[in-house]
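### Sample
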Amino acid sequence: MAANGGTKAILAALFANAGIAVAKFVGFLITGSSSMLAESVHSVADTSNQGLLLLGQKTSLRKATKQHPFGFGRDRYFYSFIVALMLFTLGSAFALYEGIHKVQHPEELNSAIVAVVILVLAIALETYSFRTAIVESRKVKGDATWWGFIRQSRTPELPVVLLEDAGALFGLVFALMGVGLSVLTGEPIWDGIGTIMIGILLGVIAIILIIEMKSLLIGEGATAREHEIIVDELTGGRVERVIHIRTQYLGPDELLVAAKLALTPGLQTAEIASTIDEVEGRVRARVPAARLIYLEPDLDRGL
């Protein structure tokens, strides 16, 4: 569900941003607004980002090889990290540069009403994309807060699209404010200020995504709830306790579980094997992502 929902949200954002980018560039050529130019580059970056997310989903499905025995699931983390870098460089850095330049050298806007109309239409399209991301995210976020979902999700696409769409909506509002205040006050410097606000917003979002995607790329373990469930299912019956356990997500849908278990003394080899099989089945039934489970039987030495 998470993968399909992520794909649906990505495609909605892709088509929305592609159309918005064209409209914004036309608006910039007519008005000369720096806010429109910054938003145009922002939309182009977002469109490219959604393409990268789709590419990551595709390449992550490659079969495991001898060189990569655990497969390529982390491709989705890698491309999400690249998306965060692009948002920072193409979106934030360009907007800050253009905004500072326009504040230092203000230029009168031409046909500002064209920019307003385009921005209002862009807000409508971006709202549709954002709503799609919210609907799909609700299916997998459970009881977590939105901030908790962004921080704890092991599936990168939905948090990325959510933050991108939120940034796009606020960026459009800032652009609309910049253009509107420039017209109302007759001071084109407001257009530059709106552009700077867009740059700061994108920078903050990019830094959050860079931190989160870097953590996933390095390797994160099971969530606190998943860890609790796994330990509960590992114990009981012939398993006296879990001596130690390590978990790590090899991809959004594949969790590696390695644990040493203290078994009841005196078990025969067949009993040990059946106990391990039983425990693995219980864990997979409760945590489907736990596809790779390596369990080492041992005696409880009180360590």
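The beta strands are 239-251, 254-263, 292-298. This sample (Cation diffusion facilitator family transporter) is used throughout the tutorial notebook.
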